[in-house]
Every structure is written in structure tokens, then in C-alpha cells.
Write a structure and sequence with these properties.
elongated
């Protein structure tokens, strides 16, 4: 099996590796995915988005099987941050691949409200606060 990565190359394999951070060929096999594995994800998923999510999930699962910490003398390696980041990436990629819209509540803070109201290209709201107020009522 092989592991290859060419920075800036415009192909699915390199794009997937860049997104999931699997770019170091010098890592042991247990800490990286092989080209053939990523090619299989592309075949099964049918497109780059779902294949990227599958590759991130496979890499996270592979790293999760290892010890979460290693110490050699004063050197200490902790894998939990990398694993947690990969699982978060998996969740985000699966949402994107599924085409799920993430809700956004604009104007939740004063500064956000000023930004939203200052956007001249936004669709104006159909309802506003005070639109039904009767100026003659006291």
C-alpha cells in the first residue's frame, strides 16, 4: 500500500488528505490512511464530500484504537486532541455532505445586529418590531 500527498495538487486524493490533515507520509501506517483506502471511500461514496467524511471517520477510528498518551523520557505525546478534532470534523463534513442547513439566529448580540442591519444586500424582514403599533393609542 502507499501514501502520497502533493501540496496544491488538484485531485480528489490530495484534496481529501488536505482537509483531514493526513499529509505526513513519514507517520506509521497505524496513524495515516493509504491511497487505496481513500480511493475506496471515493468509489463507495460517489463524490468527494461524503468520501472526505468517511476518510475522516476512518482516520479517527484508527487513531482511537491507539493509546491516547505515550511517554518516552521527558517526551509526552497526547492523541486525544487530534482524535476529538477529527470526530468534530466528521460531524461537520457529514452535515455538509447531507446538505443540512445549520440554523443561524442573526442579531443575537448588539454587534451582530449592527452588522446584519448594515448589510444592504440582505432581504428585508417581512415583520419588524413596532410595525403594528397604533401611534394614536396612548
Amino acid at each position: 500500500m502507499s501514501h502520497s500527498y502533493t501540496p496544491g495538487a488538484a485531485d480528489d486524493l490530495n484534496d481529501i488528505r488536505a482537509v483531514i490533515g493526513d499529509t505526513d507520509s513519514s507517520l506509521p501506517d497505524s496513524e495515516r490512511l493509504e491511497d487505496q483506502e481513500i480511493a475506496r471511500f471515493l468509489t463507495l461514496a460517489g463524490s468527494k464530500g461524503p468520501a472526505t467524511a468517511a476518510a475522516a471517520k476512518a482516520l479517527a477510528a484508527k487513531l482511537s484504537r491507539r493509546a491516547t498518551e505515550k511517554s518516552v523520557g521527558s517526551l509526552r505525546l497526547v492523541y486525544t486532541q487530534r482524535i476529538d478534532a477529527l470526530w468534530k470534523l466528521v460531524r461537520d463534513l457529514e452535515l455538509i455532505a447531507a446538505g443540512v442547513a445549520v440554523p443561524y439566529s442573526g442579531g443575537a448580540t448588539i454587534s451582530d445586529r449592527a452588522v446584519v442591519e448594515g448589510d444592504t444586500d440582505r432581504v428585508q424582514p417581512a415583520f419588524t418590531r413596532g410595525m403594528m403599533d397604533n401611534p394614536r393609542a396612548s
